[in-house]
From TrEMBL:
GO MF annotations in UniProt: amino acid transmembrane transporter activity
PANTHER family per the UniProt record, alphabetical: ARGININE EXPORTER PROTEIN ARGO (PTHR30086), LYSE FAMILY TRANSLOCATOR (PTHR30086:SF17)
Protein's name in the database: Lysine transporter LysE
Alphabetically ordered keywords of this record: Cell membrane, Membrane, Transmembrane, Transmembrane helix
Membrane topology (UniProt): Multi-pass membrane protein
Length: 210
């Protein structure tokens, strides 16, 4: 359901996009460094899940309707920024010895899966990206409908993105392992993640103001 003639250009564009630093990369890398590769993998899966949902919305035309509404985009900006600020506050005020909602490796992994999922769904730039990027590679030279092509293009993007994030998690996990073994870092790891969430919130809210 993808025109083979546009595939090389599409893959080149996808690779360039994956290498461009953004809030998703920052969240996945920082969670891997702070809590280990398992948490980074779950954050990557949360990001991929949101990407699949946005792909389905784009293929169905729902995201295009939302993207055309300035009010809807502003609401998403505010909700997304507020959500990230809350996550940052929860981490910053957590005890150095134990953070209730992040207690236990399974709980941490599940928490960051949810955070990556929700933060990306509430990011208007991700929504607009799927609306503006995927249609450029829809071809009239094959029998598949535009919706079917956008679905295939979006799924390919998400698979490549997930593989890229797994590699990122592995690399950052190796670099972050020495940090996790240091007691001083473990005492402040929640504060570090809190600061990351605040930075992401400012990132999102600043684009709302512009």
């Amino acid at each position: 359901m993808i025109d083979i003639s546009v595939l090389p250009v599409y893959l080149t564009a996808v690779v360039a996009l994956l290498l461009l630093p953004g809030p998703d990369m920052l969240l996945i890398a920082s969670s891997s460094m702070s809590y280990g590769r398992r948490v980074g993998v779950f954050a990557s899966l949360g990001n991929a899940t949101s990407g699949i949902i946005l792909t389905l919305f784009a293929a169905a035309g729902v995201s295009a309707l939302i993207a055309m509404s300035p009010i809807a985009l502003k609401v998403l900006h505010l909700l997304g920024g507020a959500y990230l600020l809350k996550m940052g506050w929860d981490c910053l005020r957590a005890s150095a010895a134990i953070a209730p909602e992040l207690d236990g490796s399974n709980k941490v992994a599940t928490t960051f899966y949810q955070r990556a999922l929700v933060s990306n769904l509430l990011n208007p730039k991700a929504l607009v990206f799927f609306v503006m990027f995927l249609p450029q590679f829809v071809s009239s030279n094959i029998s598949a409908t535009s919706g079917e092509q956008m679905l295939a293009l979006g799924l390919l993007l998400n698979v490549l993105g997930l593989l890229f994030n797994f590699v990122l998690v592995a690399l950052v996990g190796i670099l972050g392992k020495p940090l996790l073994e240091k007691e001083n870092f473990r005492n402040y790891q929640h504060k570090f993640m809190g600061a990351i969430f605040v930075v992401l919130a400012i990132w999102m809210l600043s684009s709302f103001a512009s």
